[in-house]
Each structure stands twice: as C-alpha cells, then as structure tokens.
Amino acid sequence: MKWNLFTLKVFAEVARQKSFTKAGRILGLTQPAVSFQVQNLEKQIGCPLMVRNRRGTVELTKTGEVLYHHIQKIYEFLQDLEAQLYPLTRHSNRQVVVGCCCIAGEHVVLAYGGASMHRWSQVIVHWHVGRCADNFTRLVEGSLDVAIACIPPEDSRLAHHAFVRIPLCCFEASRAAARHLSIKDLVSEPLILGEGGAGTRRALVRFLRKHGLSLDRCSVVVTSECIEAVKEMVAKDLGWSIVPRMVIQEELSQRRLSPIELKEGRPVQEFFVVYRKQGLMSDQLNDFIQFLLQTSPELPAQ
After folding, report:
1. What's the CA gap between 3 and 120, in Å, rounded?
2. How far is CA 285 from the centre of its chain?
3. 141-144: Cβ within 8 A, 24+ apart
4. Closest C-alpha among 67, 58, 52, 73 to residue 16
5. What whole-number distance in Å separates Cα of residue 8 and Cα of residue 49?
6. Are 198 and 133 in contact (CB under 8 A)?
7. What pTM value is reported for the model?
8. Is 237 left (phi over 0), alpha (psi -120 to 50) or beta?
9. Which residues, 6 or more positions from 5, have their beta carbon under 8 angstroms from its beta carbon?
10. Which of 31, 35, 48, 47 is nearest to 7 (CA)?
11. DSSP per position, 196-218
C-alpha cells in the first residue's frame, strides 16, 4: 500500500478540527478538495474513516483512530529527522514564513521602514494574512514559522511576546467637529463591533472593565469580521466603532468619518510575536524574531 503524505496531512487536519471546512481554511483548500483527499484515502484502505454526528462535526471511526494515531507517529519521526538534518542544512535555509492577522498584515508590517527591512534582503520572507486562530494552528503544524497576532495564543505549545502597543480610535459618521464624551455615555449609542476573537474587541472589553463597565452594557447592533464593512456601516451613520487610527486614517482625512475623543483616554491594543516552544529554530528565524521584538515599527502618529 502506497501512502501519500499530503493526503495523510489533510486527513489529520480534518481529524483535529472535526470539520472539513475548518481544515480546508487552514490548509488553503476548498471543502470539496478536502473531501476528495479523505474519500481517496478511504477507498485505498477499504473502509470509512470518518462519520458526521448529529452536531454536524466529524468523528473518527475505529479505523480512523488507528490511522490518526500512526500519522502522529509519522510526524514525530519527521520532526526527529528535521532535528538530525538541521546542523547540516541550516546555512542554506534562507526563508521565513510569517502569518499575520489582518491589521498586522495590512498596517503594522508595512510600518517597518525599508532601511530596517533591508537587512533581510538575503532571506526570503513569505507573508500570509489570516485569522489568528488559523495562524496558531498552522504554527503548531509547522506550515508557519512565526505569527504576528492581535491576541495571545491559548495553546500551551506556543510562546508569545507583546511587541507593539497601539492606541485605538473610537469613530463615527462625519461631523463638523469631533465629539468629546465619556465612555459611560458612548456605550448607550449603537455600536458596530468586530468579530469575537478580534484583538480590538478584546482591548475594548479590557478598557470597559477598567471603568466599571462591560460589553453587555454596550448597544451592539452589528458584528462583522470585515473591517471595510464596519467602516462603511459607520459612514452610513448606523453606529460607532473602534479600530487603530491608522486603519481609518484615509477616511478621516477625507472627512468620511470623524473621531470620538473619550474623556477617559484611549483603549490600547497589543500585538504579539508568536512561535513554537519546541522544535528547532533556524538562525534566520531567530534573528527575525529578535528583529521584531527589538525594532519599533515606524507607525504614523496616533
């Protein structure tokens, strides 16, 4: 029986995520492509490996459990092989694969000046933008070397260090002059909020708690994963929202949006460098992580 490592990788990801859709998102495959790989594996072995339960998630059959157990052993073997090869190949390993959350990928990374990044001209840096949860999974699996995230990971296999703190800006539809008011008054107005796992939302919750409030006190009317959609809804006067100022700098300059100045000051969002605790780290990756931690990005005035 011939084994395809890619097919085994797809099967293992579905088993971990208990979902074809989530596995596809992490692997960069469509759901039909994931199903095709699993179906081919089932045909090769000759029996079902997975079943869907009433909750819509995927469960392994007994055969699937045995296969998954041995796939984990295969990857342990490959990690050991990597450890043996590393001393022989480390000087030829010239690439770093970085996963970024949306704000980091579109704003924070670009804020590192050309002079600062020139030192990496001999290293190929691959940037991937995606959700933090997906980037953390890819880190653990090894398809990413490091992540820049707006929330810290919960997985104990990952280490993280805060490296950038960015003040947040409350904003609303265009006004003749910016309003100055207390957060205790603002929470009663319609709020358009980012997704539950977003770092901006986390920073707002922390700020509210500091001032004796909670998110439950806010009049949340819409939540969205798309920052552009949030900006458009705010511009149409459907409510206020909150993001780093650099995200809405163009709209503020065009007077499509107006800032809201809080009497209590501004919430602050942290960004984190995240990497695996275990496994070998190339010289290039270690230098790159230290560069992020020790070099301040050239962010616009907030």
Report:
1. 38
2. 19
3. 141/13, 141/26, 142/276, 142/279, 143/97, 144/97, 144/98, 144/99
4. 58
5. 12
6. no
7. 0.65
8. left
9. 74
10. 35
11. TT-HHHHHHHHHHHHTT--GGGS
Task: For the chain, give every residue range classified as CATH 1.10.10.10.
Answer: 5-88
C-alpha–C-alpha distance, residues 201 and 203, integer Å: 5
The amino acid present at 7, given as its one-letter code, is T
Q: Which amino acid is at 275?
A: Y
The strand pairing partners of 276, in sequence order, are 158
For residues 210 and 212, give the distance between their C-alpha atoms in angstroms, rounded to a whole number: 6
pLDDT tens series, the chain, 302 aa: 788 888 998 999 999 999 998 888 888 788 888 999 999 999 999 999 999 887 778 999 999 999 999 999 988 887 777 767 665 555 555 778 899 988 888 777 776 655 455 565 566 778 888 888 889 988 888 888 899 998 999 888 899 998 888 899 999 999 999 999 999 999 999 999 876 557 888 899 999 999 999 999 898 898 887 888 899 999 999 999 999 888 898 999 999 999 999 999 999 999 999 998 877 677 778 888 888 888 766 655 55
Residue written as token pair 């206020």: 240
H/E element, 234: helix 227-235
Domain 5-88 bears CATH identifier 3.20.20.70: no
Tokens 């994931």: give the residue.
34
Closest CA to 150 of 138, 141, 158, 162: 162
- The residue among 275, 297, 272 whose CA lies nearest residue 286 is 275
Q: Which fold has domain 164-269?
A: D-Maltodextrin-Binding Protein; domain 2 (3.40.190)
What residue spans in the chain does CATH classification 3.40.190.290 cover? 164-269
